[in-house]
């Protein structure tokens, strides 16, 4: 019997060969190698050793076309365990390569190698890749750019040029030490020292003007900016002075285009925007800036990253004249009303070629609370969290404990005992006024509990934010799936009246979405991808505190509805 990889390759060839017939598309296998190595980097007059891919920060671009197979060989040359997630890739029947440590794989240990091998099916646009263990994604991240199939075009005018814009977060300290200290003391972690655009903090920070991203443009052209928020713990507002942006895509799904001066983007989200440059040379520089949106009670990095939009001037003109510098206006840090209005503008393109396949009927309904909480301080220690406890975070008041072996392996080989249980509650066990005055008892329970879903079940999930230890937005990311955002609102979800206002025609389809601060989000998806799929807040501090859980989607009855066996080089714990 042939190997699973050979079988997958044969299937892919057949799939590509068949797809040759109608539209002469063709697929290819794209090979990448990730050498995980240390790299000395200086920012803000501070030099430190970081973990990098191939000695680059941010990491290299992965580029593929819809339908291509992507093969990434990871070789770990550093002391830390690593694993990689291809954020937003559906991973249809390829869950072994999804990447979250202790969920779909054991991490890749020092000196070890693992080859990620997946096909990009029915997706095109901007995604990202990043490490998915502890806080290593602070420096291990990069763009994942999926071009349309050959001879297929964008549903908008082809841009003159495409530019990835990655937002990141920089600590002068080692982020691993930052989160380790926080988990030990129970306090909130030390905040970052700067935000970055393509790894550069820009001129608004001390000792940083030389490290500024510059976007050189020509007048009268359309540029597509592939915005990626790879920051660790912060949603960001972004704007370019004196320029309007047209949003055309979100999380690698085309949307009905709309214009805006300000973009909000949560960690894990991607947004493609069209920038139409001025028809003439303006004899000015324009700052492009990003700063956080935050409504919680804790501390946060309240600083601003800036890059410069610079027009290439015509020969022999303006070369010696002084240029004006224009700065954009960003909303206030806690502009929740702006955020709600902005997110409601996103609608799926929903045409014949790119339909919005929203589940119209629902087989399984869930209500999950998402928010902060606390754990008791261990005996004979002092803790710096709320009222002498330790900060925690939870879904339905369960703070998810990562197992010491991978869930997917345990599930696949029928060895769940002692690793996980499948009794995750479908609704809050102790209902309360979620967005009102919080209860006195903020303690969470801890465990490794999952939800089991039958194959092809149609799921409606309402994510309800809580006000416990402060109401704030939580960008929830679901692995292995896109979901449709059919409703959102403030206050407590009303299961009697709110569904009447659901959009079941053209809701936006995403893989990451902010649960509104003091509000709720209603999602629908079809459980058509067997495996174990992580769902978590994309603020890494909240994930570390336990705001995470897992869905187990069972195999279907047909051979193409079952998860294949693991690859032979799957890392062991």
From TrEMBL:
Example of a GO biological process term: lignin catabolic process
A single Gene Ontology CC term: apoplast
Pfam families: Cu-oxidase, Cu-oxidase_2, Cu-oxidase_3
Keyword tags: Apoplast, Copper, Glycoprotein, Lignin degradation, Metal-binding, Oxidoreductase, Repeat, Secreted, Signal
Main location: secreted
Note on cofactor: Binds 4 Cu cations per monomer.
Domain of life: Eukaryota
The name this protein goes by in its record: Laccase
Native organism: Escallonia herrerae
